[in-house]
Write a structure and sequence with these properties.
Distance between the termini of chain A: 34 Å
Radius of gyration of chain B: 37 Å
Strand order of the largest sheet of chain B: 14-33-32-31-15-27-30-29-28
Largest interface: A-B, 119 and 140 residues
Helix content of chain B: 40-55%
Largest sheet of chain A: 5 strands, antiparallel
Number of strands of chain B: 33
Structural class of chain A: alpha+beta
Helix content of chain A: 25-40%
Number of strands of chain A: 13
Strand content of chain B: 15-25%
Order of helices and strands of chain A: HHEHEEEHHEEHEEEHHEEEEHH
Strand order of the largest sheet of chain A: 1-13-4-10-9
Largest sheet of chain B: 9 strands, mixed
Structural class of chain B: alpha+beta
Number of helices of chain A: 10
Strand content of chain A: 15-25%
Shape of chain B: globular
Oligomer: heterodimer
Number of helices of chain B: 41
């Protein structure tokens, strides 16, 4: 391959270079005079003679040491700022994997046990309450996330188990990657694949408890939670009304689902079917086995929650339907505000401070080394005999 | 050897072109090992085709097998003997000999695709990627879509196929052109025009002047007397001299009588087709008589008929059986040491890859058992995996092995090979384009004939150089002389009154008063001409002798007198005499006519006592004006021994002059004469006649007679001839030696000549402790001599230490000089690094034994400890053997440089072959890898281009492996988070294009343009070359370093985004911790990081580098958006989302800084505390640039100006036995000369001026019993 390739490029390169030189010779004003006389004298263009003007940077103490100091000096304040931003984000995390069913019939068993009990029917979800106290009001917009751990949304077989074209509304897609969730009852599953099939289906209600014991429902918005680009480019319902006979004619619902895809949000047609934002959020598979996904936003238009989630007692009513304990997973519910930089994450801030410090230390160390032992290049050029390099 | 045979008259022994010793004593001669010669040409498309053909490798043989399958035709069984009956088609057709149809093409339209693909997939890389492709097509294990491999593979395959198709189309065209050439064939007693392809074995064909010979022919008859014909074999072996071929006298009588020729029914039995150009054996049976056939009667395809109006011949070998075709494609494909290292490394990488896969397999098995099997509620196992927990986990894990093999395969990317080739190709162009290696006079640029060896030019440790035509110009110049104890020839500067070296501009003595003077002759001492003009008897005697005592042939060309001499030395001497007014005009077998300032003289030639290597002298006995005189010229010691009573003072002064000449590297001859008594001469002549007709011990008897008469000579003086070195040879050699390269001179010359040249080109210096001479004739002798050398070498003497010290000191001095600063207190003459060491001179006949398996190690040990090695009187085969010996036992890169056919073997054997172009013979150039016009360009080729190529290639490879490990290992780190499921981090599109678009251009630009030190400094500081010799630029250690660097980079690249995007949300609350966004971020940061790394690596930023570097980043962004938004990639929106967040930018900056700062610190540490020479020179370069300081070039002081010069003889004569016997025997075949006054001769070649085919008359010298070299003299 090597030899042949070199040959095959030869003519091409000559041509390209000639053309290139022709076009640039005017700019570089190289004397290409001997074109007419037929000598074999090579052109004296700077390009061919490897004498193109060039910047030749050298690592010297004068450039390297200031670099270290500049990085050090710049990174530490940036790190502090990042830490501050991260610290300003308020977050309430409640794990509820083992929450107890509020149904007296369940005898104070955990919802997880209820789900796994043999006489449990899917039609009646287990409900449980998460009560918590918000000591400081969550200022700004508040988002509600659900979090899963040990859930391998990034497993190769899981990630590929979807049909991009189907989700774009093409009804004749082959669904080849969706196996074994491609068909049910010889009808194509809509949406097919393991990702859709495992759609997270716990639902939550957030309530503010007044001291009197009254419950004030916090208005939650289930739209605007998916990426606009996803909604725009990746998900589209097939043509027709979103009914069993319309757009989703001759399709089966995913085996794990209780409702068909067109029943995800019948009240809001623009949030129904493949375009359902909850589905879209779920379909954007997580990078890591521990992840959180946006479930709802606190509606800011409501008077009480206009700018914050005030401090107080809250209760989340969980409709617990999604089993995770069988594979060692956990579920969380997270209420969080955001900063300019997003959520709470001290990593960047700490990293910036550490790197800044290291650079300062390096700078100082090299400064000492340089002053004490550093060799001025030209002083030593004559004093060594072994120039073999290191 | 051949002298005794009937065909003694032809002179084509010149074509053997070997050194004098060839064929006489080489032990390997008998075992059938022939020196492979290059038979290529340029004029003839057919020959040119042979030239470009790929080597016959095992693959090609396989391919041939495949071809057979396609054609379902079995080749005929191998011939053992060829039997032909001329003009008998029926008889000949029973043997199914190949006809004259030439087929060099490989494919037809139908067979192109299967054959070409078959061929391409035999290449390991293609095969590897084809296997990957197949793996990717298997659904359950395919972790990447097949496109990632398919696209690049298709690209490489189709480009290669296109090139192959184009080449084959050219071959088709050439074949058609050659096959359609018209030849005159005798059919049924009539000449008919036939295409070449229709010529069959046994046909009688007619050739005309200047035609290409259509097939290998047995010469029947020619237009010239005695059945002679002349051919030029330049296309076959590169030699431009004419050779003559002679038909059998019996067949020569056939003339051009077509009926007779048509009835010619000779039966020819001969050898089967073979590739030996210089041998042919067979017999011709005709008219009941049997004739022996040898090579002298054969015309080979590819030759051109010259100076012969027509000739007839019987086709013996046609088409693919011709010697030309049999010789095609034997070139060994050379690979560089980096290539070999790369192969090892790639095997290592594959091993590493498999290890990673194995690790992932085991880890996957564990994960599936611990977690995966419970996660089946959401992600069932693959259909292939059985239900049972253990079994299912096992099967899944096994499948993952292959999946990871696919995912991680990019550690060995296709683009490595392609990129390496592109870089080498560009570097080759840069060599071709270099003005500094363009020779203005001969209009010859340097040429990289292979594009695969460039970086090896930066690693050369041993140079094997030919002498004549390589180190020297093969031009002898009459430079100085000593006449009757007076020294002439020094040029005294009129201003300062001191002897100085004349330069190009120096005013030479004006000879134009003499109408026969040659303008090219330059002499700088007016006093000599004055002496001649004033009638000084001594100087007249001196030049008379020079004009008489020689075996030169005069010739008239364009109305001017030209000389054809056996050796350039003779030519120089006779020309000198001519310019000083003693013009040698003409000679007949019995007379010599000269013109002296006193008028024309005709001398009767009584006897020529010719030159040979034992006698080391030649004499002529002439009668003129009733006086018989013997004129003698010869080696100083030989002639001095034979002097009669000479004034001691003259003798002493002549000796002194001789030493001076020798010290200046001039070749000397001593001239003497003697008056002979008539009676004595008559008596001697009688005895001479008796001896010359005696059948036993003829030579011995003659020698004794010669010895008898050549005594009591009268000393005339001495000549000093300069064997002109090519320009800049001493400086080049000095610099190459300083660069740590060892130079061996391998020459066919005699020992004296070789040593002489060794001194004049500074390979040998008087500072050497000792020059060992090995000249034993038996194994015992050689062994003893070598052991003695070894003892001397290994004696840990005090002076060896002193030498060590001196050597290091010398480098200091040199550096100072190169630095251009003022350190004049150091004596500049002591700064040659050659001081103190040893040198070895070994003779060809000793080399025979030194190269036997018993002694070769000893020889090598001795030779490699010597500063310089000169092998003299070596045959071409021995040259190759010496190179091979070093190649085999030393892990060093060897380079051979030469200009002649006798260098071809060593050029082909060495790692790198360099041919001197612009000379006559093409042969060395055609078999070389690089051709340069002058030896001195070798310095630039190695120290600048070689060094740069090596430097660039090493940097390229270091970076290339780094970037691929950084790229690929992210998948490995990710496997810990994705259940070892072979999920990729990046988009498939990114994986396919990473190497192709985003990271290839900057590193290619680096590989082509980067220079750490500029060209001038590369030469000023030859020590910069040594890292290449020691392979310090790229070796396994460095590779592991790059790999670790890449691995660490990938880890950081993975972990920082991991930390940043774990549970990350955007300010709008969107979750941005998804897999696609994460992949897009890692990919982007990766591209930025590797681009920053190349920025750190690039030391020479031309605008092209800027374009490539910043263009790559831009291309990345552009292609990402184009692909995702226009072509509908699944990652659509991910990168845009990431880039709209501040997190992304902080993350990118952090990663770049975290990865670059350690590199910066590491490099700064070494530059600051342990700088390499290159670092220092770079720093200095910058200072110089600021101060615009000019660098002085280093020069070694020539040995002539040295003190304490050794006493040695400067005798050297390129001459082999001359034409003496031939002249006296009168055996010259010639036509009536067009100018009656001048006999015209044209020898094969002589000196620098080569009579080409346009010469009218051809003279065939009798093959002498000693000279194999013939006209080639010392080569």
């Amino acid at each position: 391959m090597k030899r042949v390739f070199s040959q095959q490029c030869e003519e091409l390169v000559i041509k390209v270079v000639q053309r290139f030189e022709h076009s640039t010779s005017a700019i570089m004003s190289s004397p290409v005079s001997s074109e007419q006389t037929k000598t074999k004298r090579p052109s004296s263009s700077k390009f061919r003679q490897q004498q193109l003007p060039a910047w030749q940077p050298i690592l010297t103490a004068g450039t390297v040491l200031p670099t270290f100091f500049v990085i050090g000096v710049a990174f530490i304040p940036v790190g502090i700022a990042l830490l501050t931003f991260s610290g300003n984000v308020q977050e309430v995390v409640k794990e509820y994997t083992q929450c107890n069913s509020i149904d007296p019939a369940h005898n104070n068993a955990t919802c997880d046990e209820v789900l796994s009990s043999p006489n449990h029917t899917a039609a009646t979800p287990c409900t449980c309450h998460i009560n918590f106290n918000v000591t400081e009001s969550l200022n700004g917009r508040v988002y509600m996330y659900y979090g899963l751990t040990n859930f391998y949304q990034n497993h190769r077989r899981y990630v590929k188990s979807r049909d991009v074209n189907q989700l774009m509304g093409q009804t004749d897609s082959a669904l080849s990657d969706c196996s074994p969730f491609a068909t049910a009852d010889k009808k194509p599953i809509a949406p097919c694949g393991a990702i859709a099939n495992s759609l997270f289906n716990d639902t939550f209600e957030l309530k503010m408890l007044s001291s009197a014991g009254a419950e004030l429902a916090v208005p939650l918005v289930r739209t605007g939670i998916a990426w606009p680009s996803d909604k725009k480019y990746k998900f589209e319902n097939p043509p027709g009304p979103l009914t069993a006979d319309g757009a989703f004619k001759n399709t089966a619902k995913p085996v794990n689902w209780k409702r068909a895809v067109y029943e995800l949000d019948p009240a809001h047609p623009e949030n129904n079917g493949y375009e359902n934002e909850d589905l879209i959020v779920w379909m954007r598979t997580a990078a890591l086995p521990t992840f959180r996904k946006l479930w709802a936003r606190v509606n800011e238009s409501a008077e009480t929650f206009k700018h914050s989630l005030p401090a107080g007692e809250y209760r989340i009513v969980v409709s617990y339907a999604y089993p995770v304990t069988s594979f060692g997973g956990t579920k969380r519910i997270i209420l969080s505000t955001t900063s300019l930089l997003g959520g709470k994450n001290p990593f960047l801030g700490v990293a910036y401070i550490v790197v800044g410090c290291i650079c300062l230390v390096l700078g100082v160390a090299f400064l000492i080394i340089h002053v004490k032992y550093g060799k001025r290049g030209t002083d030593t050029i004559t004093n060594r005999t072994d120039w073999s390099g290191h | 050897m051949a002298a005794g045979t009937a065909a003694a008259d032809d002179g084509d022994d010149m074509e053997t072109s070997g050194s004098p010793a060839s064929g006489q004593s080489s032990p390997a001669e008998g075992n059938g090992e022939t020196i492979e010669m290059c038979r290529r040409g340029s004029e003839d498309p057919e020959v040119a085709e042979v030239l470009t053909r790929q080597p016959a490798t095992a693959k090609e043989r396989l391919l041939a097998g495949a071809r057979r399958v396609f054609r379902l035709k079995e080749p005929p069984p191998p011939e053992t003997e060829r039997r032909i009956r001329a003009n008998d088609l029926e008889y000949n057709s029973q043997f199914q000999y190949a006809n004259n149809f030439i087929k060099t093409y490989k494919y037809t339209v139908l067979t192109f695709w299967p054959l070409n693909l078959f061929e391409q997939f035999q290449r390991l890389a293609n095969f590897y990627f084809a296997c990957l492709l197949v793996l990717q097509l298997i659904g359950p294990i395919s972790s990447l879509t097949p496109i990632t491999t398919l696209l690049p593979l298709l690209g490489v395959l189709s480009v290669t196929a296109a090139k192959d198709a184009y080449d084959d189309y050219q071959r088709h065209r050439n074949d058609r052109q050659v096959n359609n050439r018209v030849s005159l064939v005798l059919r049924h007693g009539k000449l008919t025009r036939e295409q070449w392809s229709n010529v069959r074995v046994g046909d009688v064909i007619r050739m005309e002047n200047d035609q290409f010979v259509a097939a290998d022919l047995l010469l029947l008859s020619t237009s010239e007397p005695n059945g002679l014909s002349y051919i030029e074999t330049a296309e076959l072996d590169g030699e431009t001299n004419l050779k003559c071929r002679q038909a059998l006298p019996a067949t020569a009588e056939l003339g051009q009588d077509e009926t007779l020729l048509g009835k010619f029914d000779g039966k020819i039995n001969c050898e089967p087709p073979n590739n030996n150009l210089n041998k042919f054996e067979g017999t011709l049976e005709w008219n009941g008589k049997k004739f022996a056939l040898d090579n002298d009667k054969i015309l080979l395809r590819g030759c051109v008929l010259r100076n012969t109006q027509w000739c007839y011949g019987v086709v013996i070998f046609a088409g693919r059986d011709t010697k030309l075709m049999q010789n095609s494609g034997k070139t060994k494909f050379k690979r560089t040491s980096i290539d070999r290292l790369l192969n090892v490394i790639i095997l290592g990488i594959v091993g590493f890859l498999l290890l990673m896969c194995l690790f992932c397999t085991i880890a996957c098995g564990i994960w599936e058992t611990v977690t995966g099997q419970y996660f089946r509620v959401y992600l069932p196992w693959d259909a292939l995996a059985p239900e049972g927990a253990t079994a299912g986990a096992t099967v899944t894990a096994l499948l993952v092995f292959f999946s990871y093999a696919i995912v991680l395969n990019t550690v060995v990317p296709i683009s490595l090979y392609v990129s390496v080739e592109v870089i080498r190709l560009m570097q080759s162009f840069l060599i071709n384009w270099d003005l500094a290696m363009y020779h203005e006079k001969s209009d010859t640029p340097a040429k990289a004939r292979t594009t695969t060896l460039n970086e090896e030019l930066g690693q050369v440790q041993y140079i094997f150089s030919d002498k004549t035509g390589t180190l020297t110009q093969n031009i002898m110049v009459f430079n100085k002389c000593s006449i009757a104890g007076k020294n002439y020839g020094d040029f005294i500067d009129p201003v300062i009154g001191e002897v100085i070296e004349p330069t190009e501009d120096t005013q030479a003595v004006d000879f134009s008063a003499n109408d026969m003077y040659e303008p090219s002759f330059r002499f700088f001492d007016q006093t000599l001409l004055d002496a001649v003009n004033s009638g000084d008897e001594d100087s007249h005697m001196f030049f008379r002798l020079l004009s008489l005592c020689h075996t030169v042939m005069p010739e008239e060309k364009d109305g001017k007198l030209k000389y054809q001499a056996q050796s350039p030395d003779e030519d120089a001497l006779v020309s000198a005499a001519r310019n000083f007014g003693f013009v040698f005009l003409s000679r007949t077998p019995s007379s010599i006519t000269i013109r002296t300032p006193r008028g024309e003289e005709e001398h009767e030639v009584l006897c020529i006592l010719d030159f040979n290597n034992v006698r080391k002298r030649m004499s002529v006995i002439l009668r003129h004006g009733g006086k018989i005189r013997l004129y003698c010229k010869g080696a100083d010691n030989i002639v001095f021994e034979r002097l009669g009573n000479v004034e001691p003072e003259t003798k002493a002064r002549t000796e002194e002059h001789l030493q001076k000449f020798a010290g200046e590297g001039l070749r000397t001859l001593v001239l003497a004469y003697k008056e002979l008594d008539d009676a004595y001469f008559e008596e001697w002549k009688k005895r001479h006649h008796e001896a010359s007709v005696s059948l036993v011990e003829r030579d011995e008897k003659l020698d004794a007679l010669f010895e008898e008469i050549e005594k009591d000579l009268v000393l005339i003086g001495a000549t000093a001839i300069e064997d002109k070195l090519q320009d800049g040879v001493p400086q080049t050699i000095a610099n190459l030696i300083l660069a740590g390269i060892r130079l061996w001179v391998l020459t066919g010359d005699k020992q004296e000549t070789a040593i002489n040249i060794g001194y004049s080109c500074q390979l040998l210096t008087d500072d050497l402790q000792d020059v060992f001479v090995v000249e034993g004739h038996t194994m015992q002798d050689v062994e003893a001599e070598l052991n003695r050398c070894m003892d001397d070498l290994s004696r840990p003497s005090a002076d060896a230490k002193a030498h060590q010290h001196k050597q290091s000191l010398s480098v200091v001095t040199f550096s100072d000089e190169g630095y251009g600063h003022d350190t004049p207190e150091e004596d500049p003459t002591s700064n040659a690094s050659g001081s103190g060491g040893f040198a070895l001179v070994i003779n060809g006949h000793s080399l025979i034994w030194a190269l036997t398996s018993k002694l070769e190690r000893l020889f090598l040990d001795v030779a490699c400890q010597c500063q310089a090695v000169i092998c003299c009187r070596v045959t071409p085969l021995q040259k190759a053997l010496v190179v091979d010996l070093v190649k085999k036992h030393k892990k060093a890169v060897t380079l051979s440089i030469g200009d002649g056919a006798n260098d071809v073997s060593m050029i082909k054997t060495a790692h790198i072959g360099v041919g001197i172009s612009g000379q006559e013979g093409l042969q060395a150039v055609l078999s070389s890898d690089y051709s340069i016009a002058q030896f001195r360009y070798l310095e630039r080729l190695l120290l600048v281009h070689g060094r740069w190529s090596y430097y660039r290639m090493c940097k390229f490879l270091r970076y290339f492996f780094y970037k691929n490990f950084a790229f690929t290992l992210c998948h490995f780190w990710y496997s810990f988070f994705c259940g070892f499921s072979a999920q990729t981090v990046y988009d498939v599109f990114f994986i396919s294009t990473y190497n192709l678009f985003y990271t290839s251009m900057p590193v290619l630009a680096l590989g082509v343009f980067d220079q750490d030190v500029n060209a001038a400094n590369s030469r000023s500081y030859p020590k910069l070359y040594t890292p290449g010799v020691r392979s310090l630029g790229f070796n396994k250690r460095i590779f592991v370093g790059s790999m670790l660097h890449g691995a660490v980079t990938s880890l950081v690249l993975f972990m920082i985004p991991h930390g940043t995007y774990k549970d990350a949300v955007s300010p709008e609350g969107y979750t941005i911790s998804d897999h696609q966004l994460f992949g897009a971020v890692v990919a982007t940061v990766l591209v930025v990081v590797v681009t920053m790394q190349i920025c750190l690596d690039t030391t020479y930023w031309t605008w092209l580098n800027h374009l490539c570097v910043w263009g790559s980043l831009f291309t990345y962004i552009l292609l990402q958006f184009f692909y995702n938004y226009v072509l509908g990639g699944v990652y659509v929106g991910s990168l845009a989302m990431a880039m709209s967040e501040a997190n992304f930018w902080f993350c990118t900056l952090l990663t770049v800084i975290v990865l670059m700062v350690p590199v910066l610190a590491w490099r700064f540490y070494f530059v600051d505390l342990h700088p390499t020479l290159a670092d220092l020179v770079r720093a200095k370069q910058r200072e110089d640039k600021a101060q615009k300081r000019r660098m002085d070039e280093f020069q070694r002081t020539p040995s002539a100006r040295r003190r304490g010069r050794s006493v040695r003889s400067g005798y050297a004569f390129a001459h082999q036995e001359g034409f003496g016997r031939l002249i006296t025997s009168g055996k010259m075949m010639r036509r009536p000369p067009p100018l009656a006054s001048l006999s015209m001769f044209s020898l094969g070649r002589s000196g620098a001026s080569s009579p080409r085919a346009d010469t009218q008359v051809t003279f065939c010298a009798e093959p002498s019993s000693v000279s194999m070299g013939g006209g080639h003299g010392d080569r």
